[in-house]
Amino acid sequence: MSVTLRALDPITLEVIRHSVVSIADQIDANMTRTAFSPYIYEYKDYAVGMTGPDGELIAQSTGGMPVFVADSVGMAVRDGLAIFGREGLFPGDVVVCNHAAVQGQHLNNTVMYTPIFAGEPAELIGFFAINAHWFDIGGAMVGSISKKSTDIFMEGMQLRSIKLWSKGERCADIYRIIENNTRFPEELMGDIEAQLGGCLLGRDLTAALAAKYGVVTYMRALATILDQSEAATRAKVLAIPDGVYEAESFLDDDGMGDTPIPIHVRVIVAGDELTVDYSDMAPQVAGSINSGRFGGGLTTARVGFKYLIATGEPANEGTFRPLKMILPDGKLVSASPTAAMGHYSFPFPTIIDTFIKALETAIPEAVTGAHFGSFSSLRLIGKRANGSPFQCYDSGHGGWGAGATHDGAGPFRTMAHGDTRIIPIELQESMYPYRLEEFSLREDSAGAGRFRGGLGFRKRYRILAACGLSVYYERIGCPPWGVVGGSAAQPGRVRVYKVGAAEPEIVYKSEDYPLAPGDIVVIETGGGGGYGDPRERDVDAIARDLQRGYVTADAARRDYGVTIDAKGRVER
């Protein structure tokens, strides 16, 4: 920021530091109270952020989806500045952007932002932004996401820095275009109103904060916050031994064929800077798992860096200043703007895990085993009795990797998701044609180790009406690995028990797989990788896992080398 730094009252600095995050958190809560679709009010597929006047990230909601705010809101704002210029953005303007050339993610992810003006005379001090998953924006498939899409134009409408409101006036033409390019106008237009209300209130609360302390003091505080975050993160990078560290993994395929997709991450540590080098990453693919440079490459690098290294620092531009990136064009995470991106984020968990794996020898005390690393979601699409379409999305949560001092956590969503939640079963059953007959932890799914990984779960659905099933399970051939001698976890799977069939069909990737009343679908998510030699695990911890049903007796004998007597006592 072009602001002269001076000594600030430390109390004022701390109040402003926590206030900008608190405002984002307040708007986050308001979104859940006012949205129309369960994607937003239950699953929380959105994030709230605030940028400075040049689009630099200042703060984000603490529960927001990491891949949304890591750079997506900043990119949207910077594109708007490039198109309109500061002189073309006015109080009361609201801009939306989901363009693939800007965001580099699937078109459902739409950033809405509004400029914040404060002071006398009024000056631009930043932007308040919300990136939300719009329920359906047209395209070939209900929900606008399809593994069969071969370019971005099959996936819905693109809005590149379009004013939804201009100088406080609603742009009715833009609303009409959006409303007539979705299969779910009521839900989408309701979510847009929630997003709009959040942006406007966030703008006003931020402007009031700046007015309370004075614009000069407020801007100096933000500059100081970013500089402090940068200094703290540089100190953490400096503690890592200099060197070049690498790791490899792979995805099973791109959803279109059966060729594995190589994932290669090189991490270069030099002094107080860390460079993520994606030069050997797979090229962009025919399937819809591509992402753009900022929505893919930079986002995965930032999330991995934040998770492993900048753990205690806020997510802002200062925290990420020590992070550099090498990323040639045309890679899986720097794809052409016209590439299919419907499933853009599916490679992200594996890329982040591979980033962590690369630093296993450099900081073994900080790394963790790989997490289940697959979205493992279930989507049902069909028509209600009145002929209207429905789309049900139930998320998969799995085990996270163990660390040097603890067992793995979970079941949680992937590292790409943050605080997204399971939509309550009662709500699902009231809205969609199935009954959930089982929801349990999946025994023996965790990787063994001195500390074992977290467990996946099992869900059993009984289908009540004809519909189509879409699932996308990854990491079958490259299951969640252990570190420092730990064992790999079990990958996920889906079993479909058709009425009258003798055996279930195993499914990993499907789109619109036909289901009939009475069919049973069982989804099982993967576990997390272990940490350390399994033979070093505490016997009491093994006995506790047996008692709780996390581990079966056969697995305990096989993986931990213990004996179990007739009374269930565990000995080594």
pLDDT < 50 runs, ≥5 residues: 1-5
Straight-line distance between termini: 62 Å
* Number of E-type strands: 22
Structural class: alpha+beta
Proportion in helices: 25-40%
Question: Which outline best applies?
Answer: globular
SSE layout:
Blueprint: H1 10-34, H2 38-41, E1 46-51, E2 57-60, H3 66-69, H4 72-84, E3 94-97, H5 100-103, E4 109-118, E5 123-133, E6 162-166, E7 169-170, H6 172-179, H7 185-213, H8 215-238, E8 243-251, E9 261-270, E10 273-277, H9 293-308, E11 323-326, H10 348-358, E12 378-383, E13 389-394, H11 425-431, E14 434-441, E15 457-463, E16 467-472, E17 493-497, E18 505-507, E19 509-515, E20 520-524, H12 539-548, H13 553-560, E21 563-564, E22 570-571
Parallel strand pairs: 10-11
Antiparallel strand pairs: 1-2, 1-5, 3-4, 3-6, 4-5, 6-7, 8-9, 9-10, 12-13, 12-16, 14-15, 15-20, 16-19, 17-18, 17-20, 21-22
Helix pairs in contact: 1-7, 1-8, 7-8, 9-10
How would you describe what is shown here?
The protein is α+β, with helices and mostly antiparallel strands and 572 residues long. The chain has 13 helices and 22 strands. A 7-stranded antiparallel sheet has the order 2-1-5-4-3-6-7, with helices on both faces. Strand 17 (493-497) and strand 18 form a beta hairpin. Helix 1 (10-34) runs antiparallel to helix 7, helix 1 packs across helix 8 and helix 7 (185-213) crosses helix 8 (215-238). Residues 1-5 have low confidence and may be disordered.
